[in-house]
Amino acid sequence: MGSLPLDAPVQPLDPEAFAGDSRAVVDFLAEYYRDVDKYPVRAADLEPGRLRKLLPDSAPEHGEPLEDVLEDVRRDILPGLTHWQSPSFFAYFPMNASTAGFAGEMLSVGLNVVPFLWAASPAAAELEGVVVDWMGRLLGLPSRLLFSGGGGGVLQGSTCEAVVCTLAAARDRALAKLGHEAIMKLVVYTSDQTHATFQKGARLVGIPPSNFRVIPTSAASGYGLTADAVRAAVDRDVASGLVPLYLCATVGTTGLGAVDPVRELGEEARRHGMWLHVDAAYAGSAAICPEFQGYLDGAELADSVSMNPHKWFLTNMDCCCLWVASPRDLTSALSTDPEYLKNVGTNGTGKPAAIDYKDWQISLSRRFRAIKLWVVLRRYGAVGLRAHIRRHVTAAKWFERAVAADELFEVVVPRRFSLVCFRLRERFVGDDAVDDVNRELLAAVNESGRAFMTHFVVDGKFVIRLAIGGASTELRHVMDVWELLQAKAEEVLQRYQL
């Protein structure tokens, strides 16, 4: 493949070129996945501006061969990436990729339809409704959150989008009764373990920052939000003339994997007519296994539930399932109906109402995400996906036992799902130095290039997180990182002469 002649017209969807370029990219990625464990997990060169120095100041005037582009990716891009699909990536939460996810993504971007209206791509819109009901049943969600039970679901790009949408729905539902001027009285409640995206979302929908309540948690409740703490905060606000609006219950918090008691919080939300959202972005995937469905007990009290198949469900970015008990509440807050978007010929026919997903999200345009999740479900089935989840939970249990058996280390909170939070013990380091030593340990592990982990701070303590969930991560990789941690701990402690 050479460069195009200077006067050659561009043929962007020539079938032969499409096939050839696609094969070249697939071969490139296959080679990458064969060798991904050979790259430093985190980019070795973290100096900002590196890539700008390597690339030209302006785009090329004439097209270039794809092999030249891929060679530049290999030489300039790959060394500057953090390799999220490395089997030794244990940071943040997993961001799964899979063969089925990639195949579904190829179908999505290849067909490149935009199903914002039912009429814009009927099969795409209807497949989405089918797939979110499939997912809801796999997770054991109550029927009231499914289309088959009067609720419904949509595939968002991220939890952040789902949060803004549900906050807007809750806001408008409340203001329809109170009047728009009452927006200054609305209050949102979360815990100190809740993801910060809820604070951002509350600001975006106009909730005053002074009306955002971050309720403390403690080790006594496993850092879960208690109904008593919520009740006390709500009662204080009600006594001050404020209006409780929205309560978030998290199943699998980002920092520690903590679980809030959904049923108890749901009952408290109903006491004041609050919108209850259940955020199961990471841990929701585990609920396809019967042994984990108890964590969603009480979901029938929720107004909305969300989880991210792109985290731990072998579905390539981006894909977030959002279910709502009342689609009307959501669409009332998000719908627009200009003449140029009306579905001509679909109304008044006596047929089931079409779903226009533009009214279920922030943006108008949207991707055909449903086909990606559908391919994953079809290719792996519930049995294969449960095995994927259980494999990582088993590895996390092994790691937790290894940490607990080592006198230098301690497990900070009991393991939940596949996240283990640990650190070097104070008695071997000293109270004044313990956080610094753990910071150095984490930095040493990450700088080795052999693994990548992140941290959290709870009760003033610096904690190291090991989040297991990579599509290629096996028990042997977890054993390897444990050996690496032990070796680096010895090096760090020697520097402190301990």
Automatic annotation (TrEMBL):
Gene: LOC101763102
Keywords from the UniProt entry: Decarboxylase, Lyase, Pyridoxal phosphate
BP GO annotations: amino acid metabolic process; carboxylic acid metabolic process
Originating organism: Setaria italica (Foxtail millet)
Pfam families: Pyridoxal_deC (PF00282)
Residue numbers of N6-(pyridoxal phosphate)lysine PTMs: K311
A single Gene Ontology CC term: cytoplasm
InterPro entries: Aromatic_deC, PyrdxlP-dep_de-COase, PyrdxlP-dep_Trfase, PyrdxlP-dep_Trfase_major, PyrdxlP-dep_Trfase_small
Name of the protein in question: Tyrosine decarboxylase
Family of the protein in this entry: Belongs to the group II decarboxylase family.
Top-level taxon of origin: Eukaryota
Cofactor(s), names only, from the UniProt record: pyridoxal 5'-phosphate
GO MF terms, alphabetically ordered: carboxy-lyase activity; pyridoxal phosphate binding
Gene3D superfamilies registered for this protein in UniProt: Aspartate Aminotransferase, domain 1 (3.90.1150.10), dopa decarboxylase, N-terminal domain (1.20.1340.10), Type I PLP-dependent aspartate aminotransferase-like (Major domain) (3.40.640.10)
